[in-house]
Task: structure prediction
Amino acid sequence: MSKGRILVTGGTGYIGSHTAVELQNAGYEVIIIDNLSNSNIEVLDGIEKITGIRPAFKEMDLCDKAALEDLFVQYPGILGVINFAAYKAVGESVKMPLKYYHNNLVSVVNLMELMPKYNVKGFVFSSSCTVYGQPDKEYLPVTESAPRKKAMSPYGNTKAICEDIIHDTITSGATFKSIILRYFNPIGAHPTAIIGELPNGVPQNLLPFVTQTAAGIREQLSVYGNDYNTPDGSCIRDYINVVDLAKAHVIAVDRMIQDKCLEPVEIFNLGTGRGLSVLEILNTFEKVTGVKVNYKIVGRREGDIEQVWADPVKANTVLGWTATESVEDTLASAWKWQQKLMADAKK
Ligand code: WQD
Result:
């Protein structure tokens, strides 16, 4: 007997697909919508291979409100919505801000305009630590009460604006609750190596570039700066295992459906509480995999912040969630996934 239907937008993407697996493991019926602009439909095969259950899928654009309403009619009784669907390339957002503002904001507005009509109880929004910008020293590690700062990119700004749209909608008396999850840096892959991160083109994020360099797909990794005010000079981030992150979404959905929320809108930082530098990640990757990564130190990347990591005590105590996977196991899972991709490419 299913615990009920959950709509996962952007569910063929990296975090969305891992969350679909954990939702199914928890007994929910998963419905995925995605416009496949930054993911592959074969991910559905991977989810089914892991759980034995193929999620319902509809290719569609969340900005198409009529199509979205048809989806709610086609699948009555959706209890919760988890919204992953968004453009997320920081650099591209600087070049094409309107593409990001239109897509990332209209999709959230469409969802929230339709959810009351179809009695949806809860809305989980995928936000980002990017809303904190570079926290002042006294705010590190960063808690949910740290001040939000002007985003360094239109992408980051869409996250902050969506949080405000959600907050204003809920406080105006909306009939559903919302939990906003602020991710730090998701990395790694499912331990089966059946699903993982599938960057489009040249990876922008650190880990896929590391694994592609280790695999010989990329010639050399550029480390963007070692002249920061950190112990080894490279930037510090809070790298969180993607399966740990996915499990937090299941807990958030349960919480809203079981009416356990303490406020109409709850915000949680999803991080490990441990900051690691780029060079520490590289060294740990080499130690865990035995594979050397060819890299060179280059100039800083425009828009990078120096250091941010979470204080996850609120998620640990209120949400009842803790990141459990070690960075070593997480890096090993990323490498196992990269090797699987290379083996598949040879078939
Ligand atoms: C991490 C560190 C880079 C690549 C961004 C978004 C965030 C989220 C995750 C979407 C930085 C360094 C990276 C490389 C490097 N986005 N780096 N060489 O910038 O912390 O966060 O991606 O969900 O919202 O802001 O992640 O992985 O790009 O960079 O040295 O080739 O690795 O300078 O210090 P970031 P990242």
Residues 5-188+240-271 form a domain with the Rossmann fold fold (CATH 3.40.50.720). The chain has eleven helices and 13 strands. Residues 88, 90, 128, 130, 185, 204-206, 209, 221-224, 235, 237, 278, 301, 304 surround WQD (CB under 6 Å). The mean pLDDT is 97.
